[in-house]
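Ligand-bound model needed. LLP.
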Amino acid sequence: MDHFAYQNGVMHAEDVPLPVIAEAVGTPVYVYSRATLERHARVFREALAGVPDKLIAFAVKSNPNLAVLRVLQQQGMGADVVSVGEMRRALAAGIAPGLILFSGVGKTAAEMAAALDAGIGQFNIESEEEGIELAAIAAAKGMTAQCTLRINPDVDAGTHDKISTGKADNKFGVPISEAGQIFGALARLPGINLRGVAVHIGSQLADLAPLEAAFVKLGQLVASLRSAGHTVTHVDLGGGLGVPYRMGEVLPAPAEYGAMVARVTKDWGVKLIFEPGRVIAGNAGVLLTRVVRVKRGIKDPFVIVDAAMNDLARPALYGAYHHFEAVAPRGGRMTANIVGPICETGDTFAMGRECDALAAGDLAVFRTAGAYGATMASSYNSRGFVAEVLVGGDKFAVVADRIEAGAIMAAERVPEWLA
Ligand code: LLP
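Prediction:
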């Protein structure tokens, strides 16, 4: 459930009419709802009530906006980060260093050193090579890094190929078949305390079965590590729970996920860590856009909006579906191709989509844009970076300025020797 709904025929974010935001900030603009973020954080937490010892660390990559992170910090969340840039955002939002986890296959030596200096809570090591390097860096500083080893369980998450991470040929984690031997080798090193294992098999999972299969394999690995004499106190179960993008679509609820986790892990005797992203932020944001013009087509008309693939990349990258509707529907319907202004055919949000009838100047929204939306924006076609707004009740604030194309150009120069 989210807090984007029609009041008197006009879509509001909580108590703020979207046209008021469009007027004040311009379009395109991402609009997030604080009450929705809080609700999703609470629902996820309550779903895991059956797990006694846990840390819920928001996947910052899904929405790294500082104000969004602050809302989630106030909900008691930690942060899962994959770069020093994300780590600095989590810290700036007030998330305690001890609640920050560092994932990712390509942590550089400089990033590992910065994360150690910041005192972050855990590194999820993704290879033997990385573990050896981290151990050396930490030992040289006289520090001990708290770590888990990320396992690739060879489970097909059944989601889009580009966001699957747990198959044997994906770059993430160490093969489960070699996990015992690599764990043993790394556990001996000074500079790291290898205290557990981690897994993340993919994103936008529409089925709990692959997650359960991965968790069961992880439980067997924990048992075999223990019988080999290792101490295992932490298991990171990653993120990945899908959200509905289509109206009426039904996905496994957080409560079902929580019940499955509690059942599978009940005898593990570890602290469990979760890294949810999309399920917290996805339906807490919309991309508000204005129709530039409607162009006749051979079959269906083209509704050309002022948002484009540089602002919301998911349809172009993954063929993703984002529900599209008018901010102030007049009652009629149309079938249209919904496209942005960018000069490539990939800049298409939907083909042959039935939607509210729209005309030039009308406002519309792409829903479920709170996760992997603004954070994946680019300045392609010199369009600048899209602005972001947070609504709370009847208040709203610009929480990320629009970065105009001119500001980006100002960081470029023509060398003297070209003049
Ligand atoms: N933990 C790790 C190690 C991850 O790689 C990810 C996402 C998450 C947690 C959070 O997953 P979530 O709960 O949000 O599914 N750009 C793509 C999604 C990429 C996900 C990358 N990793 C999209 O727009 O669908």
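The chain has two domains: 4-32+283-409, 33-281.
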